[in-house]
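Example record

One chain of 130 residues, shown exactly as stored in the release files.
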Amino acid sequence: MQRAFEKIIERLEEEKTMAYNTYKNYEMKVDLGRAFGVENAIEIVNQVASECDGWIPVSERLPEDNARVLTTIKTDKGSLGVEDCWYSGIDKCFKTYVDLEPLPPQIEVIAWQSLPTLPLPEPYKAESEE
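Predicted structure tokens for this chain:
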């Protein structure tokens, strides 16, 4: 998802440059306003990108059936980790990728995301844990 934000910012930067160039060449106040609007949009996208790390809390949404996903797991002792899993919509549980067995009851999946490119991301942390 981070790549998508980068592409959006890239396009907005091009739009801002075009608006400033139009303003300088033709002295149109409308284009200066458009350039300022694009600058504000870039700030908003940067803010959202910094808040969005790709993790989706299971309390918000579950993966599609039979999806292979990366999960943030929390043990009964409070330790966090990242686990490669399959989600079974039929069984309504996450299963280990290696043996397709349900995760043990002392391990809770708290968030998931589509498989990213390497390196692996940091585990999901709820806002209250930060």
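Notes: Residues 2-26 form the longest helix (25 residues).
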